[in-house]
Amino acid sequence: MTVARTVAAVDLGAESGRVVRAGFDGTRFEVDIAHRFTHSPRTENGILRWDMDTLSGEVTAGLARLDAGGGVVDSVGVDAWGVDYGLFRVDGRLVDSPTCYRDPRQLDAMKRAVDAVGADAIYDATGVQLMPINTIFGLTSDLHDHPGRVAAAEKLLMMPDVFHRLLSGSTSTEYTAASTTGALDMRTGRWATGLLTALGIPDRLMPEVVQPGTDVGELRGGFTGALSAARVIVPPAHDTASAVVAIPFTEPGALFISSGTWSLVGVETASARVDASAKAVNLTNEGGYGGTIRLLRNVMGLWLLQECRKQWRRDGADLGYAEIAELARAEPGLVSVVNPDSTEFLMPGDLPRRIQEYCARTGQPVPSTVGAIARCAIDSLALGYRRVLDAITAVTGTRPVAVNIVGGGARHALLSQLTSDATGLPVRCGPVEATAMGNAAVQLAALGEFSGVTEIRAAVENSADLTEYEPHARHDWAAAAVLLESLTSADGP
């Protein structure tokens, strides 16, 4: 395979990261994971924070491998999860380690902000789903509980742009990452300064917003090999935005599920939908590549299984995800369900116990085995996806006719089949590495290899291994959907 251009896609997830070498030969992508690592937040002085030493060290190690690998790497770009941010001093140093959106402080801060200005005012100013993880609620907590953080800061940068700054000195933030803050007016693409002022958040913190594909400077770090002349080109820096770029949609208006620690479930639209109907069902508008909007809702995602697995390991059962899935497959379906988005599942800890307590409190059979608890979680995720599908249909007036799943969750055969069963729609899974591919593709487009997203998706179609599922009518998903709606209403917003 002769590759015309090669780029480096740094893809940071909330549990793991990878540095990927990606090339394009005019027809197909070639994707090679040069470096993979795991990481997790840690508690410092009572606050859950990201381990920047590990993250920056592993990113540097991955780029060093590429640098020593021969050939030429033309550019580097970083994508990461949304909502979290770093605060920088005037001298360019971080004030402290960025805090994690799963810290309990966010729950109290959301209540404080809503009490101060009202939930309607927050949504009307931004068009962003109200969730305790949103950046504005972290900043609200900073102002109330840790005012020294804000006082010491000159500028806020979203997590992927923290790394763009470390790699190039850039002081801007990328549009799709900024769109997850709950502080950007998604109709205009500008900071919602009225909302920021009402919450007491200094607008001096908010950086220039640049579009995906922007060249923000030469790569720093003293690389002398393959990366010696590389530029830093920001991709769609929110990982879901990069993933959606690399979805080979089967039908116009198809539902996408970017499935990882979080599941982001939505459709691509031409403009933001900020109205009473979208607000009523708490849909969010997030920025996409090429001037698009992703109309979606966050669903808790594979976090439910990840945290259960950690607890089972602590209890002495060191099971892999494939083993857990097989145990779940052997269980009858829809015996018990939970609201996967309940805030009681947001924080780290003993999630199996919390699932059991939820089922007991809501008068359902209490799952007692690993397989039964996992089946409850997986059924609930599939139902959660159906619930978002119904909300999007109600708001747009058009029901999607297919589902595309990308990301790590595309490998989960049971969840994929149950998603097809729950929605009654055909499901197409892949590519697994959609985020890295979308990241790389936008860099390549900036370098002249693609004219836009249509060409990118055609190349992905040629390059990816895709798996398809058809719906089976094995369970009463309609009745289960009614139950989930009642559980969600009881849990509150």
UniProtKB/TrEMBL annotation:
All residue ranges annotated as the Carbohydrate kinase FGGY N-terminal domain in the record: 8-245
Keywords, comma-separated and alphabetical: ATP-binding, Carbohydrate metabolism, Kinase, Nucleotide-binding, Rhamnose metabolism, Transferase, Xylose metabolism
Domain of life assignment: Bacteria
Positions of the Carbohydrate kinase FGGY C-terminal domain: 256-446
Keyword Transit peptide tagged: no
CDD domains referenced in this protein's UniProt entry, alphabetically: ASKHA_NBD_FGGY_RhaB-like
UniProt keyword annotation of NADP present: no
Family: Belongs to the FGGY kinase family.
PANTHER family listed in its UniProt record: SUGAR KINASE, XYLULOSE KINASE
Name recorded for this polypeptide: Rhamnulokinase family protein
Organism of derivation: Amycolatopsis minnesotensis
